[in-house]
Amino acid sequence: MSTRTSETMKAIQVYTEGDPEVLVYEDVPRPTAGPGEVLIRVYAAGVNPADWRARAGFPDVPEKFRHAIPPIPRPSIPGFDVSGIVEAVGPGVTEFREGDAVYGMVRFPHGGKSYAEYTRAPVTDLARKPVTLDHLQAAAVPMAALTAWQMLYLDLEASQTVLINGAAGGVGHFAVQLAKLKGARVIGVASGRHAAFLRELGVDQFIDYTVTPIEQVIHDIDVVFDTVGGENNRLLSILKRGGRFVPINIGNYSTEHAALAGITIGTSHHQALQSSSVQLAEIGKLIDTGQVHVVIDTVVPLAEARKAHERGEAGHIHGKIVLRVVEEGRCSRPPAYPLA
Ligand SMILES: NC(=O)c1ccc[n+]([C@@H]2O[C@H](COP(=O)([O-])OP(=O)(O)OC[C@H]3O[C@@H](n4cnc5c(N)ncnc54)[C@H](OP(=O)(O)O)[C@@H]3O)[C@@H](O)[C@H]2O)c1
User: Fold this and answer.
1) Distances from the Cα of 220 to the Cαs of 189, 224, 268, 315, in angstroms?
2) Nearest residue CA, atom 21 of ligand 1?
3) What own/partner pairs with CB < 8 Å and gap ≥ 24 does 330-334 have?
4) Do both 173 and 117 map to the same domain?
5) Mind listing the pLDDT tens digit for each residue in 121-153?
6) Residue 156 domain boundaries
7) Fewest CB within a 10 Å sphere: which of 113, 164, 262, 326?
8) 142 CB less than 6 Å from ligand 1?
9) What SUPFAM superfamilies does the record tag this protein with (predicted)?
10) 238, 224 in Cβ contact below 8 A?
């Protein structure tokens, strides 16, 4: 029986780490906006690997790195990416008013709580929603686009060649478009099913990693942007002396080898991903002027968040997964994954 009142809302909660079944749809207290925050009526919540990895207790993170994982209180509401309408403003807020459409990545990495009908967010984590996007599309943008912006776009130069590993995924598809906007030459690596999609996004060269080992065909490039991780030491060997290797996932590469080869690891701008209302506004402008496109892999209703995580963990993502919280508008692209 529902215990819903005007002070409660529907949300997904996680009581214990585990498989997607631990995502429970239930009534929880509705939050209120504190100082410097707004209360958002959530229309859509973006789904990221960070969400399903946190739900599962980050089983892929080796022991030596586990101290860096922020503690997750239980029960907790997952989700960082949100698009919605400002329902109320907290004390001291002048940036937004009730009724404004906003999008953002909320409280990363400490818990944004966007898998819910309402969420509260610091205004510094938000920007106005791009007007050309519906909420489903806007919720797909923040974490993936901010990662591509902070970890690749800011350092990249027009004269450079960049290899983007994992080019068809959430981060990768923004990275490809932003690198092309910078004027760089872009090599996209993905499984063959994404070849046409990535050529449409503008890659100059496509490599199907299931057929061709990257290091057999690529040498002496300027930048490797690796969203895949794992055994990525071999990616150092395709960089020229003075090149840059940007891993955003956990991988095995030798910092000693990189130093000997004169390779810089990481970015010069951001040590770790952070939200930025300024960058979200700039990304929004590129979207509204048709220079960056958002691609949706799958849309799932909030109540069925479990299916979104199952889709994510099945792999081979083509763009982004989004939770629909309020029915409105339609996606520009039909889901690539059947919603049972
Ligand atoms: N450090 C940070 O702050 C930060 C921020 C955002 C994301 N991340 C991490 O970055 C990773 C990627 O995020 P995402 O949102 O882009 O994930 P995603 O949407 O799941 O996309 C991953 C993509 O990688 C491709 N892929 C898988 N194995 C591959 C391989 N061996 N070679 C090339 N491509 C491969 C997949 O499709 P195909 O196999 O079909 O090509 C898929 O398109 C996640 O682990 C996430 O946690 C880190």
Assistant:
1) 16, 11, 21, 30
2) 169
3) 330/134, 331/134, 331/136, 331/137, 331/296, 331/299, 332/137, 332/294, 332/296, 333/295, 333/296
4) no
5) 999 999 999 999 999 999 999 999 999 999 999
6) 144-265
7) 262
8) no
9) GroES-like, NAD(P)-binding Rossmann-fold domains
10) yes
pLDDT at residue 184, rounded to an integer: 98
User: Do 131 and 166 have their domain in common?
Assistant: no
**Which CATH number characterizes residue 23's domain?**
3.90.180.10
Is residue 313 domain-shared with residue 188, that is, in the same domain? no
When mean pLDDT is compared across 65-74, 265-274, 320-329, the lowest value belongs to 65-74
Domain co-membership, 206 together with 247: yes
97 in the same domain as 84: yes
* pLDDT for the residue numbered 144: 98
Cα distance between residue 134 and residue 191, in whole Å: 29
CATH number of the domain bearing residue 205: 3.40.50.720
Beta carbons of 221 and 243 less than 8 angstroms apart: yes
The token duo for 281 is 């506004």
Of the three residues 246, 265, 284, the one that is the final residue of a domain is 265
What integer best gives the mean pLDDT of the chain?
93
Is residue 152 in contact with ligand 1, taking CB distance under 6 Å? no
Q: Is the CB of 191 under 6 A from ligand 1?
A: yes
pLDDT of residue 72: 85
Looking at residue 62, its pLDDT comes to 86
The pLDDT tens digits of the residues spanning 12-44 come to 999 999 999 999 999 999 999 999 999 999 999
Same domain for 193 and 180, yes or no, is yes
Q: How many CB atoms lie within 10 A of CB 35?
A: 9
Q: Is the CB of 171 under 6 A from ligand 1?
A: yes
188 lines ligand 1 (CB under 6 A): no
